UniProtKB/TrEMBL annotation:
<dbReference type="GO" id="GO:0005524">
    <property type="term" value="F:ATP binding"/>
</dbReference>
<dbReference type="Pfam" id="PF00005">
    <property type="entry name" value="ABC_tran"/>
</dbReference>
<protein>
    <submittedName>
        <fullName>ABC transporter ATP-binding protein</fullName>
    </submittedName>
</protein>
<feature type="region of interest" description="Disordered">
    <location>
        <begin position="1"/>
        <end position="36"/>
    </location>
</feature>
<keyword id="KW-0813">Transport</keyword>
<keyword id="KW-0067">ATP-binding</keyword>
<keyword id="KW-0547">Nucleotide-binding</keyword>
<dbReference type="InterPro" id="IPR003593">
    <property type="entry name" value="AAA+_ATPase"/>
</dbReference>
<dbReference type="InterPro" id="IPR003439">
    <property type="entry name" value="ABC_transporter-like_ATP-bd"/>
</dbReference>
<dbReference type="InterPro" id="IPR050166">
    <property type="entry name" value="ABC_transporter_ATP-bind"/>
</dbReference>
<dbReference type="InterPro" id="IPR027417">
    <property type="entry name" value="P-loop_NTPase"/>
</dbReference>
<feature type="domain" description="ABC transporter">
    <location>
        <begin position="40"/>
        <end position="272"/>
    </location>
</feature>
Length: 293
């Protein structure tokens, strides 16, 4: 994001928006300037916040140890408040663990990390800029002009917005705005793409279309993806593995309760029986009574 754009972002969005001001990754490029997918390691990550009504800290995440291989799509599921977004923020450097380390490509994350790009549930576009410009804002600073134009053109094509590039965010649908946000994140060619409920605010049909689009995007840019979602079916459709965060009885802190490897190649058949069984297991792991389903 250019300096003038980043300085005009609303204050309450400033910390997340800082992830959009990430500059060109320094050491993670191949010679043809495509990004490499990078590994992510959560090494004994704990995060506690000051307790609201007591001196006791509010421990949210405890002893999270997890390896994500380059190019993997990892979905993170868990009950509301179990620390999914907090875990993602630790990977992006928007937040820091109280204990433990996050390593990207073997190097600790220390502050906002230019190897990651983040997309949130709300697209957070600049309302006074058109779609083309909003995608362009994701480009690393110093991208040569001709390359920048070509990259934005290709991304707009990839997310099927090439005919709408001249419109402003208020003139497009929620799904189109979210596609713009995804293209902006990809413009940086991140080694790790962090998606926090990216389709959570969309209607059911648009959400399914966006899932298919994300698969196409991942095929075109096979980066490492960490996807926080509440949607079990979305996780089963998109992920190589699904991590479920959970708490022990009488504890506030969540840790890794289960890790599932999702069977079958993508795109997966949504009515596959094996996936259906895994769906029930996941739902019951999330505390949903599955007997009636
Ligand atoms: N900056 C903060 N200061 C204090 N507490 C925080 C802060 N950030 C998160 N928390 C607390 O950490 C807990 C986990 O929040 P987080 O948003 O990571 O959960 P989540 O699993 O993503 O929730 P949801 O599914 O509802 O979005 C919550 O109790 C929240 O209040």
């Amino acid at each position: 994001m250019s300096l003038d754009a980043s300085t005009s972002v609303r204050a309450e969005e400033a910390d997340e928006a800082a992830s959009d001001s990430i500059t060109e990754p320094r050491n993670h490029r191949t010679q043809n300037n495509t990004s490499q997918a990078l590994s992510v390691r959560f090494d004994n990550v704990c995060r506690a916040f000051p307790g609201k009504n007591s001196n006791e800290p509010h421990v949210v995440l405890k002893d999270i140890t997890l390896d994500v291989v380059p190019g993997e799509v990892l979905a993170i599921l868990g009950p509301s408040g179990s620390g999914k977004s907090t875990l993602l923020r630790a990977a992006s450097g928007l937040d820091a663990p109280t204990r433990g380390t996050v390593l990207i490509d073997g190097t600790p994350v220390n502050g906002i990390d230019d190897r990651c790009a983040v997309a949130f549930q709300e697209p957070r576009l600049l309302p006074w800029q058109n779609i083309h410009k909003n995608v362009e804002l994701g480009l690393p600073q110093g991208t040569p002009k001709a390359e920048a134009q070509e990259r934005v053109r290709r991304l707009l094509e990839l997310v099927e917005l090439d005919d709408y590039a001249h419109l402003r965010p208020r003139e497009v649908s929620g799904g189109m705005a979210q596609r713009t946000s995804l293209a902006r994140a990809l413009a940086r060619r991140p080694g790790v793409l962090l998606l926090d409920e990216p389709f959570g605010a969309l209607d059911a049909l648009t959400r399914l279309k966006m899932q298919d689009l994300l698969l196409q995007v991942h095929e075109a840019h096979p980066t490492t993806v960490l996807l926080v979602t509440h949607d079990v079916d979305e996780a089963l459709q998109l992920a190589d593995r699904i991590v479920v965060l959970g708490r022990k009885p009488r504890e506030t802190a969540a840790s890794v309760a289960h890790v599932f490897t999702v069977p079958g190649d993508r795109p997966r058949n949504r009515s596959d029986e094996q996936l259906g069984r895994m769906r029930l297991t996941l739902l019951s792991g999330l505390g949903v009574d599955t007997h009636r389903h």
